[in-house]
Amino acid sequence: MATAEATPEPAALPVGSYDTALCLIPPKHTWASIDRLRILYDKAYEKWPPHVNIVYPFVGVDSLSSASEMIVSELRAWKEASGAPKLRIRLGGADAFSHRQGSTILICDKDPVRAAGLSELRNRVLGALGRSPGSYQMHMTIGQSDDASSSSHEFLLKKASLLPAVEWDVEELHILIRGRMQVDGNLTSQMKIWGVIDLATLSISRIAEPTAIYETERLAQGDVDSERDVEAQNRYTSRLPYVFSSSEQKWKVYPGPSSQFKEESVPQSLTVASYNVLAEFEYPPSQDRYPLVIQNLLGKSGISDVVVLEEVTDDFLSYLLREDRVREEYPFTSCGPPEQSDIGPLPSHLNTVVLSKLSFSWEWVPFQRRHKGSMIIRFDSIGKRNGGVLLPAVLSTVHLTCGLTDGSVANKKLELQSILKYLSKKYPENPCIVAGDFNITTSAYTVNAALKKKAISSHTADNLTEMETMIAEAGLTDVWSFSRVQYGDSSFDEDQRHLCDVFEGEEGATFDPTVNELAAEMVGSGLNNRPQRYDRILVKGQGLFTISGFNMFGKNRGLLGSGAAADDGSGTQGKPSYASDHWGVRCSLKLASDTSEPTIDDSSKLSVELQVKAPPDSLTDVSELRECLSKQNAFPSERDIHEREAALALLKEAILDDGESGHVRGKPAFVVVPVGSYGLGVWTASSDIDCLCIGPISSRVFFALAVQRLRKAVTRGIKVLRRVNAHSGTMLELEVLGIKMDLQYCPSTFIAETWPHAMRLPPSDSVFTLPTQTLAKLKPVRDLYYIRRTIPDYAAFKVAYQLVKCWAKQRGIYAAKFGYLGGIHISILLSRVCKLLSYNSKSVSVPTILTTFFDHYAGFDWKSHMAFDPFFHKRLRYVRTPREPMVILGYHAPNLNTAHTASPPSVRTVSEELKRANALLSQEGMTWCGFIGSDGLTERAPEAGAAEFLNAYKTYVRIDVQFWGVSLAKGSGFVGWLESRCVMLLVDLNRGLPSMHARIWPARFVDRDTSDEDKDYQGYYLIGLDRLEGADNESMAKDQIKITIGTLRTVLEKFEGQIRGDEKYFDSKSCWMSASLVKQSEVSHLRLDGREWGEYTIGDDESEEEEEEEEEEDIEQLDRDADAPTSSKSKKRPVHGTTSIPSRPAYTGKFRSSADVISRLRWDPGMDSSDYIVGYNDRFLGIRERALDQWKSEQTDEEFIPQHRIEYFKRKSDGVIVWDRKKRTDDIFGSGVSNLPGKDAS
Fold first, then answer.
1. For the chain, which end, N or C, has fewer CB atoms within 10 Å of the first or last residue's CB respectively?
2. Where is the Endonuclease/exonuclease/phosphatase domain positioned along the sequence (predicted)?
3. What is the third-level CATH fold of 619-928?
4. C-alpha dist (Å) from residue 696 to 699, 729, 747, 1046
């Protein structure tokens, strides 16, 4: 600093006015890089230009003329006396100083020689005014920070240091004066140029009317409503991308395309990705995650033609663009590396950057909030021709305001409006892509929780919905939603827990605190700790783009610091972590030259059009719907979930592990997969678990092995209840930890070894060239996987499914075996509605899905149309036969029509109930519990529907069912078979009396005073009879009545003959049935049978001795196959001389099992169980005997002996053997050899 003047000025001017300043202003071409920071961080931006103050505060406005004359005079004297040096300034260093309001971030010239020259100039100026110099820190302000110890302060200081050096010759001194004005009713000010002192000529250029330095006066307030404002700011931010020059080893601004757009240069496809890379917020920033981010970007699932990166910082971008492979894969970048001296920092701490294989230009659309805006990319080589004009494809980047508050959501909506408005005005016909982090809360759980806690208003919740509507109305297609419906999501979660925990709007989440620990750290324990689908890619094809795929990436953990330049001392290197708190999203687009819009396919012409139907106001509350379903026990409790998880895990462990094997052998690869309602995730506490095991061995060998392993696990809680040989194959009915399970098996080596890869293969793949029975076994799991992979919002589907199921049960139409709806039918019909709504870019609530569902199918013409998924059956080849009154197509072969048991009467009943439901849901004031029936309580709803049925008809067909002397399980076998024949009775009734409508209630009724403890059983099935609408309303003549009754009785007698004549299932010694016509008064005393029998599969129970012998043979063969080398297949089977299997009599008919005999002897009142002895084969002592009353049948009992070891039953009183396994004689039931013609049973 120069010394004070030796002699005081005789006419000193006061220096203290903040309305004037004497300063240096750099050349205007250097402003851009400086103002990109100042507009965001400097409170004085636009009030002041970029400047270096010489004297501020300066003299009063009235003294400006005399002061300028005095300064010029002094400078002239200085020049004449010593030849004043030519001054030059270079602002290349960054610093900060503290003051009362915080800290100021600045750039300065740290060269002492140049700084001294500028200080001498200031001293001369002050001397001319008669003032002492005082202290002086030459600087140019970049911004302010509130806390000098914060990381944000350090990051801003780092940005200032990254600015390209601003260097110029000091040739002018600018005199500024404050001009006051009003902007939007607010008083503000701006420094304007009053005059310029030319240091070369030492002349004063006075400006008559002080001029504004910036051409617009509204950018400081961030108002971008006018196109003029946007254009004004674009002059500072619109630019070409950077490309890497290998010769100069630096990034340079792309000079632009060298030739015009050429048709042949258009690529055939385009992949676009978006990835929020998670910025570092602590200074100095850790680089441990950077290698993981780069691995994801360059990995197979992440590499793209264009990548939009959010939350990019200066440090990360510099690191990223140093990577050689990044330079090779992405030659174009919207922003160059900040560490390069001639490029400069990114404007904000969180920035959006675009990497691309294709050249482009871009422009910036600012939002009202600082640091927020959208980058509009215009591709040079991609576009569509409209006549002779090329309309380039554009891509808009998105990173909306985060948070779930009234203010943040309002800002989000405004920002989204700005983007959509800009695109619609400037690029109305251009193919368009919008990609990035939308930060729109999608989880219904999060939104509802925020509403309940009053963290947000109902208006804010409406704004969230309105944003989805804005996207749809702009003609933008959500790629995730479209691809999931069209192609399925290959990355869906197979975890059953996920199916129970997910809420509406959480499917396809890209920010998941429940899985990603980085996301969990970001949200803490607040309301927003649920999965959210923040990141999206939206497309408006305009005939150019067709969506062909979607995937997520970045979902695998890596080791922190792997490949990082150096250890930053954080202690995290080597720890497993995700690369970011977000998953990346990528879409694939096909480029077409024609202008036709993509269609679903030809099959869409056969699909009935879907119209959205909004629910009345009384039904819009999803929480009320959930509460109603909770009363129905539609949602399992946490205990139910844990019990089934444990049961399934135990079953898998028992099946897949061969336990205590005495020797090592090759273990075949098995897969146990839940199917049915549990596999789909729509189960309730009363549901069984259906399981399918897939493996490489034959079914016979598998079940032999499985039964052996399951019996070993009896002490762990597994019971083999029944083994059934049905027409569809063998099945085991099990009880595992108290949970009923059905286990089936499918032999398929490839599918077992590559599970679950095969489920993602197209149906036409050669892998599925399998036998029909094998495909039939695979069909449930293939259909299930397809439904789960393609439902747009699984949680919404699940809630809607439970409501439809509860309604169907209450109305008596939930029973597929009676020709009504079953779980698979509801799944297909409902998923079809969900997918069609989603395909039309409709984001709808669960109530809207339901009202649309009932409205659509209430008007469905089942005779003329087929219900099918047009996204799966794109070329429908199914040919309907006249014998199919209803067609609801499944997905995979064989047996495409899932409604094959439907009959004309059952279809009519279902159609009438759908119309009734639609009418109820159209009523104002209707509630969900009112819709289901009564008050919605579980025990009341089915009873209410049945009670209505008992009073709905004057005449009923009553089918009496009785059985005695056998267990409930055995009796249920007969009843189950009888139920399967009721469909044929409905068909015969319809055929004989086409003007009569017959409706069966799909449940058993019993007398009101019947006790569940009764040993004998008598129940009833009821079919209500009514004349069809449109029939002659006049009373029937007596003759016509007689004919009708006669026809009914003929049909019923035929049905009775069919049932009683089937020796396989009907045994007059233990059961009986009859069918008769009764009046309404004769059924008024009935009630529903509340006993849980479970589902009984029609088939043959294998006799126990056959089962045991076959198991031993099959397991021995499996052991030999596993132990022997491949060449041993040609060797003869070894003979075991010590094993003797008794030969059986020639008769191979049905022989009653020992379990049936025990049950009959114990429960038949005509027999005395104490008079019978059981003869059994002890493994060590040979044949032993025990009194029947002392025989233990419970597997957990210490004295339990497997029933397959029973050899005979003997009467004590006369010593006669009444049942003999080896001789196959049976005097108890008369089965086996005793049943042969001419054979004396005694």
1. C
2. 273-547
3. Beta Polymerase; domain 2 (3.30.460)
4. 9, 16, 5, 57
